[in-house]
Amino acid sequence: MACTSCASDKTGTFNDPKWRRALWIALAINGGMFGVEIVAGIAGGSKALQADALDFFGDTANYAISLGVAGMALTWRARAAMLKGATLALLSLYVLAAAGWAAVYGAAPHAQVMGIVGVAALIANLVVAVMLYRFREGDANMRSVWICSRNDAIGNIAVVLAAGGVFGLNSAWPDLVVAALMAALGLSGGIQIVRQARAELRSFPPSVPVDFQGSLHGSR
Asked: Are the C-beta atoms of residues 118 and 160 closer than 8 Å to each other?
């Protein structure tokens, strides 16, 4: 899943109007779906929906950060990617803890709410993933945006399947298992993002200040 190539020399790409327009649309979609899923997750008692809502919230912040650094030097893009990767990992750890708590004290969620909202979230994330697919081989910042979008679409499919499991078994376990799996996927993606960002920061010669190198790189 981690990107093994580096597009750091293609500096013109990051101010591409198509890239920025795609991010603005993705930001609006994710911000709106965060509000829908957090309300539905709390009302329906679904940890998987709440986990997905946190994902939407994190992605909204990620797209905002990406828009802020899209035209900046590689070092700043890599630093932003490191922040995003660390945030994704921390949110994943939170979801794991919440699922563990619900396994002891929680009740079965409303399967109908999970199914309807899960399908709506899947459609939203597929739209975003298709828009960002062409940018999946960029630097750590672009790669992190693609990883988040792809992971979200996979997670939405799992939420819909969990809704069917909750309905058929009248048990919270399908919801909790999916929440834990989504957290593990997010943790893996966060680690990959941080690793690539660190590799890009290490690519600068140690004898020259990294910010100076970044400004030189950005001026090419």
From this structure: yes
Instruction: Give yes or no for a contact between 75 and 201, defined as CB atoms under 8 angstroms apart.
Output: yes
H helices present in 70-205, as ranges: 74-105, 111-132, 140-169, 173-202
Contact 42, 54 (CB under 8 A): no
The DSSP string of 15-59 is G-HHHHHHHHHHHHHHHHHHHHHHHHHHHHT-HHHHHHHHHHHHH
Which fold would CATH assign to domain 12-218?
A: Alpha-lytic protease prodomain-like (1.20.1510)
Q: 187 near 52, Cβ under 8 Å?
A: no
Contact 121, 33 (CB under 8 A): yes
Output the pLDDT for position 155.
76
Helix (H) / strand (E) containing 5: none
Reported as a single tens digit per residue, the pLDDT across 45-70 is 888 888 888 778 778 877 777 677 65
